[in-house]
Amino acid sequence: MVVLGLSVLATITAWIFVKQQDEDRITRQFQREAQQNVDLIVERLRKYEEALWAGVALFKASDEVNYEEWKNFVQTFNIGERYKGINGLGVIFNIDKDDILTLEKKIQKSQPQFKIYPQHSNNYILPITYIEPLDLNFKAHGLDVAHEKNRLEAAIKAKETGLAQITGPIVLVQDPEKTPGFLFYAPFFDKNEKGLFKGMVYAPFVVKRLMAGLLERSNRHVSIQISDDNEFLYEETIYKSESLRKVIEIEIYGRQWSFDIQADDAFFMKTKSNQPYIVLFGGLFIDLLLLILFISLSAQKNDAESIAKVVSRKYEKEIEVRKNAELEASKASKAKSDFIANMSHEIRTPMNGILGITDMLIDDKSINEENRQLLCMVQDSGNILLSIVNDILDFSKIESEKLDLHETYFNFANCIESCIYLLNRKASQNFVEVILESSLPSNLFILSDEIRFKQIIINLLSNAVKFTKNGKVTIKVTSSGETNKNIKIEFVDTGIGISNENLKRLFSPFTQADYQTSVEFGGTGLGLSISKALALALNGDLSATSQIGKGSTFTFELTAVTKISDSKTIVTNEVNEEVKVFHQKVLVAEDNLINQKMMEQILLKLKVKFTIVPNGKKAVELIKTEHFDIVFMDVRMPEMDGLEATRIIKSLPLSHRMPIIVGLTANATTQDREECMSNGMDDYIAKPAKFKDIQKCLQKYK
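-> structure tokens emitted (702 positions)
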């Protein structure tokens, strides 16, 4: 019976150990999700702050901005789509009491209903003079924000600090539901008389709408309550019965916000694991067998005890083997991740120099045609090598189930046509005609991950063009259903075809049709495997049929939410090709001499004022004494790396505006990006960075 007791104890011990490991895993996952939700809110408010400073810049650039000019300015922001949660953008002027009637008459010329209200005894007069869209904010037009404590205190703080500020919790007069909200101020001053407070550009927020725009409840697995000075700004149902809870306190734009975050039922369903119960019931089952064994062999006590000891030792050994196996698996996974990260960095660093320099030399008109063709060959070879690295990284992410998807609405027709455009040159070289036959309207938008969707389309089209000579590739697009459409995209080529035997293993990793195909056409054999996995991740599938000598048909089917838009194009952050000159002041922290030279040539071509330093320590010292708009920060550098330098810069009490810090690194995994962002970087460019990458970044933050 002692052996049976030890066996039961071992079972319970194993169960407690596995259960504790599972609980620790769930807790870590909850901590990450909670922090990610808070970071998303803070990051989005920074984007909204940029919109306010853009309005301030408008007033700095002009002696006087009238209502019509302000209306045209606000319309360019497309608030409803790009700035969800904002009720509008407005202007608050600081005026004397003697100027109230003058201002009312001036605005009433275009807005007859304008009236400053309410009357109060405070020293400031701060009426909302401009507000767009006016129809959504009519009740706030003319409201003197100095009449109420929360609104006035934030305005005074903005005036005194010259920084953006938010108010404490208020109820917007234009909110019919009377839910909590706040105002976001950015002050502006007289450009001729330094320090003279002229007013503020502001945005009114209803927190309920802000949360709906940023963090749809259906897309989260945690509940959130937001409070400011013990007053609720936003409140959801909190599941008091569960223990996972995190309170995050942050100071944001002059206010102290508290985020009370707790896991909900969806979170526990997602993270639920049966492993502890398998260990418990498996062990109890063995214990039960031992008990039966003891009862049946009670007449042979010595033999029974011997058998029980053997079984107990075997069970304990199995637990030890399992623990060792888990430890080895964890070490192997970490070694694999470290290898991929190091491989990415070591290959991308020289590739950054090769592709960047060849890109600039190809555009150099002084290069003769023969040398330009040689440079194009170098660039094509570099792009092939980079494509192989990207395939390996994607395959690793898919294999470890760490592939991130970012769903947005994008124009389906524009997406397909841009993929065809990218492969036009390759098709022409193979004398292949690419034909698009689509029954979908040109203004159809689908909800999916556009980058991964394009990756599938480009890979399938590239394969069709590569294996077809002097023929044609037809892309046939059909659909069924209403809002949730079943979309079928067929790639029909007249190429070499694939045998039935090779079709069976076509979507396996590192697989090509046969050895001769690999020798003649090249490639890693990962493209179709990755495309298949991406199709499944996007709620779709990928299949193929083929005949030797007659061609192949690859079919990509997916189910996606769709909508019809009046606009046939989608607003993106693509860089304007006409923008050639930028006025930012740029600092580059980069230790690699080749990459320094490449960045120097790119920035010279863009006519940007710039300084280059060899490490993070030099960058910190320079920023303490000199203002820069953007810092391109390499991550791995001697003396002080880019992550430490970024943390120090972000903590500096700079008298001038904090620069935008863009990570420029050969590390290309999701964990690397998260590490850059968590250390304070504002953006991230994976090496090799080309001319257009830098141009696009300067355009984004100009």
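Residues 568-579 have pLDDT under 50 and may be disordered.
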